[in-house]
Amino acid sequence: MTRFAHRALLVLAIVITIGCDRVTKHLAITTLAGTLGRTFAGDMIRFEYVENTGGFLSLGASLPLGLRTSLFTFGTGVLLLAVVGVALRYRWSGWSLLGLALFVAGGASNWVDRFARGKVVDFVSVGVGPLRTGIFNVADVAILAGAIIVVVSELWPEADAPSSPDPVRDRVS
Asked: What is the model's pTM?
């Protein structure tokens, strides 16, 4: 695949991630806000509208407004730029770059909410009985998936490397 095709796929992954997150948050605002929510699959999946003023799982939601804004709006913006800078500096490619793209796309979409509204819309939780996840959104899934892809691709770099001939294996006797 050409370099252009790789870049086009990367941009497509970013656009789809941000687009899905924006559309689903809009749907959550217009259909779930002010309701009791909806459950599916025997209550394994719940859709309920929550405005998260904190970070992951509402951590930091009780911080004073100024500190919360600094940390979650400006701090997150700087962190996202730094992560992109590291990827450019070390010329990440392959799975690591895809993971980074998902991580940054999810982070950027949530960052837009924080910058524009001071909070993030969350609307999904999954679980069985009392064992449930926190309430999250599509951007959160992208962030988690991206982080997992980066970690796995860094722990097993051969999964990212193109296959090359093995001089021992390919030697003709």
From this structure: 0.84
